[in-house]
Write a structure and sequence with these properties.
This protein is mainly α. It has three helices and no strands. Helix 1 packs antiparallel against helix 2 and helix 1 packs parallel to helix 3.
Length: 90
C-alpha cells in the first residue's frame, strides 16, 4: 500500500467503517449459529448468510483507506445493517 497522509477525521471515518463491517460480520455469525442450532436448519438460508458474511469480510479486507467517498458509503451502508440487525431500525 502506498504511503499517504490523512487527518484525524479521515482516520476515524475509516476505522468506523471497518468497525461497522466487523459488527455486521458478527451479527451474521450469530444468525448462522442460531440457524445451525435449529432442529431443521434451512440450508438455503445458511448458504446465503455465509455468502453475505464472506462478502463483508472481503469488503473489510479490501477497503481502500484513501477512497473517502467509498469509506463514507460503506460506513453508511454497514451502519444501517448493524442498526437493523440490532433492532434499532434504519
Amino acid at each position: 500500500m502506498k504511503a499517504f497522509s490523512w487527518d484525524s477525521e479521515e482516520a476515524v471515518a475509516y476505522e468506523a467503517a471497518i468497525e461497522a463491517i466487523s459488527a455486521a460480520i458478527g451479527f451474521l455469525g450469530a444468525r448462522i449459529h442460531a440457524e445451525e442450532q435449529r432442529a431443521q436448519p434451512e440450508q438455503g438460508l445458511l448458504e446465503e448468510l455465509k455468502r453475505e458474511q464472506a462478502a463483508c469480510a472481503r469488503r473489510r479486507d479490501t477497503l481502500d483507506p484513501t477512497d473517502r467517498e467509498l469509506i463514507a458509503s460503506v460506513r453508511a451502508q454497514y451502519t444501517a445493517v448493524v442498526r437493523r440487525e440490532a433492532g434499532g431500525g434504519d
